[in-house]
Structures are given as structure tokens and as C-alpha cells.
Amino acid sequence: MLYSFIIAGFVCALTALIYAEIAAMVPVAGSAYTYSYAVLGELIAWTVGWALILE
């Protein structure tokens, strides 16, 4: 049980570093649409944008 918490904490720390790298790559502070457009492309960003609108 203790090892699973250690692994989960390590994975969360790596995720935070990945989000920091993505935020540094995108010059415009924005939302999930901006990040998905920069990383995954226009089609995925369009889908994310509509999901945010429908939310």
C-alpha cells in the first residue's frame, strides 16, 4: 500500500512537470483549447472547444 502511494506521488510530480513544459512552450496563456491546439492539432482542439462549450 505504501509503495502505491509513493508511485502515485511520483507520477503526479511528473505530470506537473509535463504541464509546466507545455505551458512554457505555448506563448499565450489560455485554456484547454489553446494547449490542445498547440500540442495535438486543430481537429482535437476543435473537439475540445466544443466539449467546453457544451459543458
Describe the structure.
- The protein has 55 residues and is mainly alpha-helical.
- It has one domain (2-54).
- Helix content is 82%, strand content 0%.
- The protein has three helices and no strands.
- It has helices spanning 2-25, 32-39, 42-54.
- The longest helix has 24 residues, at 2-25.
- The chain is elongated and about 40 Å long.
- 4% of the residues are buried.
- The mean pLDDT is 87.
Summarize this structure briefly.
The chain has 55 residues and is an all-alpha fold.
Beta fraction = under 5%
Order of helices and strands: HHH
Round the mean pLDDT to the nearest integer and report it.
Answer: 87
The major sheet is characterized as: none
Q: Compute the CA-based radius of gyration.
A: 15 Å
For the secondary structure, the number of strands is 0
Number of domains: 1
Helix percent reads over 70%
Describe the protein's topology.
Layout: H1 2-25, H2 32-39, H3 42-54
Helix pairs in contact: 2-3
Keyword list:
single chain; elongated
